[in-house]
Amino acid sequence: MLKANTYYNPRLHPQNAIRRRNVVLDQMLRYGFIGERSKDSLQQLPLELDYANLNIQGTANYFLALIKKDLLEIIDKINETEGTEYNLYKSGLVIETTLNAELQVLILKAYKQHLKKMQILIDGQYKRGKGKRQLEIIAENELRGVGRDGEME
Fold first, then answer.
1. What is the pTM assigned to this prediction?
2. CA-CA distance, 46 to 37, in Å (whole number)?
3. How many CB atoms lie within 10 A of CB 54?
4. Using the 8-state DSSP alphabet, how is residue 37 labeled?
5. Calpha distance 74→56 (Å, rounded)
6. Which of 29, 57, 81, 103 could form a Cys-Cys staple with 39, CB 3.0–4.6 A?
7. Under a CB-based contact definition with an 8 Å cutoff, are residues 25 and 43 in contact?
8. Is 75 exposed, middle or buried (0-12, 13-18, 19+ CB in 10 A)?
9. Where are the alpha helices (DSSP H) in 31-60?
10. For 44-102, what is each residue's pLDDT tens digit?
11. Paired strand residues for 152
């Protein structure tokens, strides 16, 4: 879980985000996850943001991105085999999907409400120390690329 996500928000506080990134890279070096050269080169990289604002771009961007990827492959294959020149953006194609936009909005609302409740429970559990070591082990294994079964992924 991200520590102090507002304070380290790269859009709002880029210098804080860079400092935190560098602390994390220092810790990764200290515990053997990366080498000195990797740490140094990563710390020199500029801060770059690449994310979608769901409030601006819609409620199912992930779904639309997958559909777009699949459509481009399908259109390329059709153009290649049929000798056509369809263009996803200019050919006036009508694309129908299984997405129900109204249901998606309701699902996202319920999901956000559920996450708020779960975060309160997790915060309380972590503060009490219950399961704290298990969470640390999971985080360490994820950083090493080790699955829950102990096997490398």
1. 0.40
2. 17
3. 12
4. H
5. 28
6. 29
7. yes
8. middle
9. 36-44, 54-57
10. 999 988 775 655 566 787 888 889 999 999 999 999 999 999 999 899 998 888 888 89
11. 146
